[in-house]
């Protein structure tokens, strides 16, 4: 392994383009579920893959996979700060990387959704937490033996009851001290 000083450090920009877009019932950030699949949301959406970039053969073998990961670009994000207030912990500012705040240096979203069915290049999904028009960067299968670590510790999040009410407001960024 190289030392940090001599390790190669690729610099951006990186060539990332959407492979599709989400058609969702949610039009604004406010009111869009957070961690929708974990909260039991039944909201349905369609992930429309770009026919000029993605051939239908890319969806071969996806049938029968119950859950998928969607990596997206959170295009309606605001600026970001190193500390944020979250809906589940409104009183205490938290370090950005210890949260799932959508306001990030690179606003990449990660959503675990249920795959309902596939029609041509349209993936019908349930448990969506994405705004209508969200660009999709990639789709990957959820693989339980590799993706689930039920006994992992979640730090400050473990201290909040799972069913604790969330504050229905936009998380506020706070400045570093």
UniProtKB/TrEMBL annotation:
Superkingdom as given in the UniProt entry: Bacteria
Methyltransferase listed as a keyword: no
Signal peptide range in chain numbering: none
Pfam families found in the cross-reference section: TrmO_N
Stretches assigned to the TsaA-like domain: 16-151
UniProt keyword list: S-adenosyl-L-methionine
Gene3D superfamilies tied to this protein: YaeB-like (2.40.30.70)
Coiled coil regions, renumbered to chain: none
SUPFAM superfamilies: YaeB-like (SSF118196)
InterPro entries (alphabetical): TrmO-like_N, YaeB-like, YaeB-like_sf, YaeB_N_sf
Family named by the database record: Belongs to the tRNA methyltransferase O family.
Name this polypeptide is given: tRNA (N6-threonylcarbamoyladenosine(37)-N6)-methyltransferase TrmO
Gene: tsaA
